[in-house]
Each structure stands twice: as structure tokens, then as C-alpha cells.
Design goal:
Layout: H1 2-6, H2 12-26, E1 32-38, H3 43-47, E2 53-59, E3 72-78, H4 80-89, E4 94-95, H5 106-110, H6 113-122, E5 139-140, E6 145-146, H7 152-160, E7 163-164, H8 165-175
Helix pairs in contact: 2-6, 6-7
Amino acid sequence: LAAAHASGLLSLEKTLEAAMTLGQIATKVSGAMMHTKLMLSTAETELKDTGIALAAINVAPVAAAGQPEEPAHVTLCGPEAAVESWMFQDEAAARMRPKHPWHHPSYADALGDADRRSLAALGSPAAGHRQGRAGCRFISATKAADVSALDVQHWVAWLSTPVDFAGMVRHLASSCGLAPRSSAIIEIG
């Protein structure tokens, strides 16, 4: 939300409204979140039929040519019991503070018409608010791409699909002409 405001896509008022709206929607699905490491190439198979979903790809190491894949640092989410079961089997897993499974696919089904109208209203620019401040881009966490507007599809994806922080960093580095292994990008927030 801070990035959407900093880029000029949301006014301060709309940013606060988005925080309230997303927080209210979060209460519709209960669950938990955890951090662990997972091979992205096998993640879909490992998560199948567990109730657990990939919530975020935080760091995805780029393997050098001919080198084996390294585990990615990920956030997983799901129902409380499923998270507890996973954590029992995965010593590397660490419980996170949220009491809701942010970015879990079940949010898409939990949205009612009123929720979708509220989310659609977040995409409306404030009167007289300049769109896209010079030099400050908004890179979507769900698309790992530059975005110039936040519509209802953006917010539904943000609620119900994984955020790809690692992909955002790769996109930013690539669009700035930086080689993947020759630079460091620090995200604060």
C-alpha cells in the first residue's frame, strides 16, 4: 500500500481506505502463515491436497549454469490445522504473526458483491491526484511487472494469489539494466 501511495496511484485517503477494506476482508478467512524453504520446482506437488498455499516467494536463488536448484525462501499459508501439521514435519518452518492466511486462494471465494464493490472503489483515483509521480514506478507484487492502475482484479489477485517479491526484484533489476548476480537491491518495508 505504501508503494501504491508513493507511486501516486493512491492518495493518502485511498491508501488508508485500502488498508481498512483489506483488513475487513481478511477477517473472512481464518488461518495462519509460516516461513520456510521450498524447492519451487516441486512446490505444487508438495502443497497439493494439504490446504496449504504458497503466499509469497521471498527469495529465489538463481542457480548458476549446471548447478542444482536451491530452495527458495517462501511464505506458506492455510487453515490453522494444516499449518500446524506442516510445521510438525518441517523443522525449518517458523510461524508468522498474522492470524489470517493472506494471499490464500480461498479469499477469492470468500468475496461477496459488497467486497468486490469496495475493492473496485479503491481503484478510483482521487480528484486532482496526479497519477504516477515522476521517477517512482509501481511494480505489482502479484504480476512482478509495472502497473499503472489498480483495479478490482489487482486487489482480488493481491488477496488470493502469491506475491512474488523475488520476481519483482528480478523485474526491477532487468528493467534498470542490472545483471542478476552483479547487484543488490534492498527492500525496506
